[in-house]
């Protein structure tokens, strides 16, 4: 290859530096995914260096800024290969929960997924303190709520009894209770024996 041909070769295309939007997205993913610590540390350094490059304040010891193709690779890796961080105290089993004054029944669906329903009185009121007709409460699907509830929201047996007595309904399945012993227990005979 002659020197002239080398000179005439088009300059290698300089890759585009990762955008702020890409960097923000990577930061969000690093916060919400379980990535190896070393990877997380390396990425934090690279992101800071790339942000400084955007502002024209590159330091002598900065690594080369991240290019946008590499940023896409990082995003794909974090989204597809790193599991979401487990939420501390997340609800993983069925039960009765009280959160912000409302009572939720968490059950396992046929597809084996937990979902939450909230006890609602005929006026659409979910706060126990505001129920006008506690004996007519029904269960309403509460989308996404199962992920907001915490294990610390789980009702004690005593609280379940209180709620079941207040509503005269089995707190576990919402069946109407007629027997006075069941009302006192807050649960129907079947649920009480579980
Ligand atoms: Zn029941």
What is the count of helical runs? Answer: 8
Bound molecules: zinc ion
Helix proportion: 25-40%
Which runs of at least 5 residues are low in confidence (pLDDT < 50)?
A: none
What number of structural domains do the residues give?
2
Tell me, briefly, the overall form.
Answer: rod-shaped
Q: Which structural class do you get from the secondary structure elements?
A: alpha+beta
Q: How would you sum up the major sheet? A: 4 strands, antiparallel
Number of extended strands: 4
Tell me the fraction of residues in β-strands, as a range. Answer: 5-15%
Strand line-up in the sheet with most strands: 1-2-3-4
N/C terminus separation: 83 Å
Q: What is the radius of gyration?
A: 28 Å
Overview of the molecule:
This protein is an alpha+beta fold and 194 residues long. It folds into two domains: 66 residues, no CATH class; 98 residues, no CATH class. Helix content is 40%, strand content 12%. Helix 2 packs antiparallel against helix 3. The mean pLDDT is 90. The protein binds zinc ion. The site of zinc ion (ZN) has 8 residues, from helix 8.
Task: Give a brief rundown of this model.
With 194 residues, the protein is of the alpha+beta class. The chain has helices at 3-8, 20-32, 37-55, 68-81, 145-148, 157-167, 180-185, 189-192; strands at 95-99, 102-108, 114-120, 138-141. The site of zinc ion has 8 residues, from helix 8.
Topology record:
Blueprint: H1 3-8, H2 20-32, H3 37-55, H4 68-81, E1 95-99, E2 102-108, E3 114-120, E4 138-141, H5 145-148, H6 157-167, H7 180-185, H8 189-192
Antiparallel strand pairs: 1-2, 2-3, 3-4
Helix pairs in contact: 2-3, 2-4
The structure holds zinc ion.
Residues 170, 172-173, 175, 187-188, 190-191 line the site of zinc ion (ZN).
